[in-house]
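Field: COMPLEX_INPUT
Field: COMPONENT_COUNT = two
Field: RESIDUE_TOTAL = 806
Field: MODE = joint
Values follow.
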Amino acid sequence: MIILDALQAVMSVDVLTAVTIGSISGIIIGGMPGLTATMAVALLIPITFSFTPLIGLSLMGGVYAGAMYGGSIAAILLSTPGTPAAAATAIEGYPLTKQGKGGLALKVSVIASFVGGTFSVIVLLLVSPLLAQFALKFGPPEYFLLALMGLTGVISVSTGGLAKGIMSGLIGLIIALIGTDAMSGMLRYTFGQVELYEGVSFMPALIGMFSIAQMLALTSEKRIANDNIDLSTIKREKMPKGMVPFIMLGTAVGTIVGIIPGEGATIAAFVSYNMAKQKSKFKDLFGKGNPEGIAAAESGNNACVGGSLVPLLTLGIPGNTVSAALMGGLMIQGLIPGPELFTKYGQITYGFILSLFIANIVFLVVGLFFAPYFARIALIPASILIAAISVFAVIGSYAINNSMFDVGLMLIFAFGGFFLDKLGFSLSAIILGMILGPIAESGFAQALTISGGTYGIFFASIPAKILWVIIIALLIQPLIGHYKSKNIENIAS
Amino acid sequence: MRKLISLVLFLATVIVSGSFAAYPSKAIKLIVPSKAGGSTDTTARLFAQTAKKYWKGARFIIVDKPGSGGLMGFEAEARSRADGYTLGLMFTPQIVAHIVAKRATYTLDSFKIIGNIAEDPEIVVVPAQSSVKNLDDLVKLAKSKKITAAVNGIGSDDFLAAKNFETAAGIKFNLMPTRGSTEEKAAILGNHIEVAFMNLSQMLAQHKAGKARIIAIMAKKRSDIAMDIKTAPEQGYNVLMTATRGMIINAKVKKSIADKISDLYTKVMNDKGFQAKTKKAFIFLKPMKGKVYRDYLEQLQKDTQKVYDVSPW
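Field: COMPLEX_OUTPUT
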């Protein structure tokens, strides 16, 4: 009954307007590197005082859902992921744009995002208390294993051979060592730079290695799309077949990973991408523009939106920085996370959840309608585009922490990334190592602190055992594939 | 010649209007040394919102400078231009802990202390399933076996509280530093560790919902919003710790301007709307004006130094 009341509340003009505005501004914010959903939600917190709780929350929820999708637009068209979670999307999306199939990539991305986002909200609506208990089973040893599972993706994202892929992953892990050791408080490789005490922030690294390195490569071209492509080819694209299993895969992975507090969306996107590659019949196309990869990665990161709200609403544990900011918004409205949210404040809570459905519909409509127009970016002359993107890259790197140091960092990563890419190293694997390194390290150290130094803790719980099985499964197939292709090469030579 | 005269006149007008224009005549930056969306950030945004009521037409720009336990933000505040157009938020004990650990290039003398805005008392929390009901139980358990205690980062209020409690009770924890209070929360709610040192606002909702048990608040008095939680001194352990959140400006700002800012601070702190909004956001106001707060900070620095001398980080 309470859900019907909530539905009635959501169907008011005010709430619908709030969701629509939230979702559309979310898309814009998510699409711009340097503007984050976290910032947007934080900005909204004091403003929402003057609104009713439901309007305030649906505005913030709309921004969250919209931004998660918006991150994929620039990732696909310009290889400039607006959020780290969209990095996996860029791996497949940008090559498609080069082939003049940017519009197709955008369509796949928006539909996958919609399905992932909507399914995870259904899960949130129906079974959150149950899932919250599942989330609590994850302690430090399981976080370590989760990060390890994400790191197996290094193999999938590497296109220049296994050895170089692993080396790239290690480079990322080594960069992640810079900063304060969380366990002892000691400084590691900071060279007296205050800015490095916190470690190398990965948004500048991401912008440098993905967008600027790509722009450097673009200097030798006239435009992003290959020469023989014109406007009429871009308009004619149809939705590819066979995406359904990959969207379902990403949705499942994203929802589950999203529920576990941590760097949810990025891990979810890469794990989904990794699984999609292993499942695919067209493995060779991965890295060269396979829409299957986009379908899995985008449904994966959007499914985290609903997932991350499960522990937030039931236990008050925010799954990531956006939901942490969202918690501030909830509390200001007098909504304290816990069981009461679903009973006493049920109308508002369920109303908020239902408004997320609408936010998903809004970005679906906007995304589908504008996809062909957005895709024309590929036809803009490189001389104009490169300048524009470089400006965004500098502003974006600065805006994350309001720090000029980060702009310098971005440039170092841009030039380093450009040459590493030319030498066949995988920039995606470096990013993966950088993002997952700190999670793996602290999970490992914390687990050993709890166990008093015995390694049994990594095999003790049921979730840990399941994670081990998945990790091994994710490793075996590509290794077999690797040796098979080696043998073929040997026979051939 | 006429051109020259008009130029001189023009410049004179510009200079006069520039230097004698009533402060504030342009946008004021408010540096927040932590992430957007956090509690300090919300405090700053609510403060700015209320301040506009008293300084008509004034614009405030919130600049989040997160990183390294506030160090990035504190350094930026110390290096800001001393024209009164940069205000800074800060939090304890990190601001003095960085001085003690020799990480900071500033000292307390780099700042003019406007006053404290809010505080978040330290608490000791155990999982709901735990047999530990009070501090004595905890000490007994810690003496019988090695138990894991989570603190949010090294050199934080949690860390100092845990260290001080170890000394007071004559025990030793298996200290597990986390990256953020979320990890502490998850570890306690999931019953993965025995105890955590956290702040009241972070666990109050879970305590009230019966999902975790706060066994002590490290303050002289019980908290209005959670009268059932006994203080540490009540239980025979004289360990006090709180995280305060205050406002500072560059020490070189002119007195006339600094006084205006102090006046604004007082007005905002007494504003009924500000009090109501912060209460809803779990921000517990604790006014301490200039000198009083300065003395508090100096004492805190001495206390932190003692802990650092015994076990440096």
